[in-house]
Specification:
It is built from 7 helices and no strands. It is an all-alpha fold and 189 residues long. α2 (15-27) packs across α4, α4 (43-92) packs antiparallel against α5 (97-143) and α5 runs antiparallel to α7. The termini are far apart. Helices cover 83% and strands 0% of the residues. The chain has a domain at 67-188.
Length: 189
């Protein structure tokens, strides 16, 4: 979305009307709960609650996209830091190549592991935010007597966080470091 379009969307949104709706909703909370239990909720209160849920869904979606962007930047930064560390270590310890390769193995694996853990945390939060989006959407569906959506990703979240396709780069870097340094050390002997 272009900035001018976002600015137009923000300026066209009637925040004053929303504030008035919120105040009236707060004043009529008990009445609305009673009416909801009776099965009759005024249309304007349903509309206000829908607007609030849409705002919440939009906010959660933007946060999810933000975490996703940070995850991509984490992967880029990992490759950059790893390349820099290997280059610096090879440049500083030219004479003791066997010891340097052994240090590269451990330091490189540590760098990759640290970035991997950070990316796992980012992925976990993305998954939790997606669950929140489904919950907000189900609130809207419930008010309109529609079937609810099921968020099937709650089970196994930790396993999915640790092992998923987006982390393939970390697995590949880790394997490449171990295989390359081990191969080079064995060929030097």
């Amino acid at each position: 979305m272009r900035q001018s379009q976002i600015r137009d969307d923000i300026t066209s949104f009637d925040f004053k009307a929303l504030w008035e709706d919120l105040k009236s909703l707060k004043n009529n909370t008990y009445k609305a709960e009673y009416l909801e239990s009776e099965g009759t909720v005024p249309e304007d209160e349903i509309e206000t609650a829908d607007k609030l849920d849409y705002i919440q869904i939009d906010s959660l979606n933007k946060a999810t996209l933000n975490f996703s962007g940070h995850s991509l930047e984490t992967k880029k930064l990992c490759v950059t830091v790893l390349t820099s560390v290997i280059t610096i270590m090879l440049g500083l310890y030219k004479t003791e190549l066997e010891e340097t390769l052994d240090m590269i193995r451990w330091v490189g694996a540590t760098v990759v592991f640290i970035f991997y853990v950070v990316d796992c945390i980012l992925y976990w939060y993305q998954d939790k935010l997606r669950e929140g989006i489904i919950k907000q959407e189900n609130n809207i569906r419930k008010r309109h007597h529609m079937d609810s959506l099921e968020f099937r990703r709650t089970k196994g979240r930790l396993f999915r966080t640790i092992i998923n396709r987006s982390h393939f780069i970390y697995y590949a870097l880790f394997v490449a470091i171990i295989v390359f340094t081990t191969y080079r050390i064995q060929n030097m002997k």
